[in-house]
Design a protein that fits this description.
There is one protein chain. The protein is built from seven helices and 17 strands. The protein is α+β, with helices and mostly antiparallel strands. Among the domains are: 93 residues, no CATH class; 118 residues.
Length: 351
């Protein structure tokens, strides 16, 4: 039979568009906004600090020596401008079933806030104090491997360092953790007799955002915590090796023969090879057969939204990102590099 009845079958459109996933953003909850009213114009906000004093023994009738007082300037430079632009034609606005413009406005607002969240969390790199494996009986400077058995020790160690450093408790302390660290906290609660994983976390939001108090701190969960992946090389990569960052593949080609989206030239030495890969990941420099062929705009957007940034020095390629990403290496035959375990820099501070 040769029936053709497709034209009689209608198609329908849902009453609404699909919602894109959104991570809970926490920077606004814990950052200092007191200068906002001042920053209607200007390029810097100065907030100096003064020197400390010491207490001396005093003998009656003897002269005292005045202590020097110094003022040191610190300032915030206002130099970051971000944008996200789309175009919706008036004809489409009239004829479309959905209010695409308002949907995009909402998404742009979220994307800008997410960018702020990642940049804010990345400032953990400038912290004065750190908790490392040395505080757990291991090697100082190395990351802590957190488990159910030591996760509460992490919190108490952070609190002890804050107390030792005389960090004020005039306003609450906060700790921003990753979803994986939150899971360990919940498992610890269960292991210690709580009826449910959140019994000791009296937060109103289950999932992302504010969790409640744990270890005398207000705890937030964020997918924007700074993460670091390290790729250690032992030799120059070879043709058809693939390095993948957050699902975006970068393929090695022989020197001066980069061809195809996402391919890069291995140059003639390990350092030059990795330096070229860095420019390919960061999207800097000048694309070409002797450097790299740029990735698609869709893949570039993936790296931008993840806050991916690459650097290289002495056999070590370092990838930082706003949140957890997956990195991998597929060698053509012999492996000339290895990825280390991803490290998350959770942020502790005072409101």
């Amino acid at each position: 039979m040769a029936n053709s009845l497709t034209a009689a079958s209608p198609e329908y459109r849902s009453a609404r568009m699909q919602n894109l996933l959104k991570a809970k953003l926490v920077a606004r909850e814990i950052s200092n906004m007191e200068e906002r009213a001042t920053l209607t114009n200007g390029i810097k906000v100065h907030r100096p600090y003064h020197s400390d004093v010491s207490v001396n023994s005093y003998t009656k009738g003897t002269a005292v020596t005045a202590q020097d007082v110094t003022i040191t300037d610190e300032y915030l430079t206002v130099d970051q401008t971000k944008e996200a632009t789309v175009y919706i034609d008036n004809i489409d606005k009239i004829q479309n079933k959905y209010d695409v413009a308002n949907k995009m406005i909402d998404r742009i607002g979220y994307a800008l806030k997410k960018n702020i969240d990642g940049a804010f969390m990345a400032e953990v790199a400038n912290s004065t104090y750190t908790v490392t494996d040395g505080d757990f009986g291991g090697t100082s400077g190395n990351p802590v491997t957190v488990s159910v058995s030591n996760v509460f020790k992490l919190f108490t160690t952070v609190e002890a360092k804050a107390n030792t450093a005389n960090i004020e408790d005039t306003t609450p302390w906060f700790f921003v953790v990753t979803p994986n660290l939150k899971a360990l906290m919940q498992q610890t609660n269960l292991a210690n007799g709580f009826n449910q994983a959140d019994a000791a976390l009296q937060g109103t939001l289950k999932g992302m955002g504010y969790m409640g108090t744990w270890g005398n701190m207000n705890v937030f969960v964020s997918n924007s915590v700074k993460h670091t992946n390290v790729f250690t090389t032992s030799a120059i990569l070879v043709d058809t090796d693939i390095v993948t960052i957050a699902g975006v593949a970068f393929t090695a080609d022989a020197d001066n023969t980069a061809v195809g989206v996402g391919h890069f030239s291995i140059q003639n030495s390990e350092d030059l090879c990795m330096a070229t890969l860095v420019t390919a990941i960061n999207g800097t420099g000048t694309p070409g057969v002797d450097t790299y062929i740029d990735i698609t705009q869709a893949n570039r957007d993936i790296l931008k939204n993840a806050g991916v940034s690459a650097s290289y020095a002495a056999h070590v390629l370092t990838i930082t990102s706003y949140g957890n990403i997956t990195c991998s290496y597929t060698p053509a035959s012999t492996s000339y590099g290895t990825w280390s375990t991803q490290v998350a820099d959770c942020r502790f501070g005072q409101y």
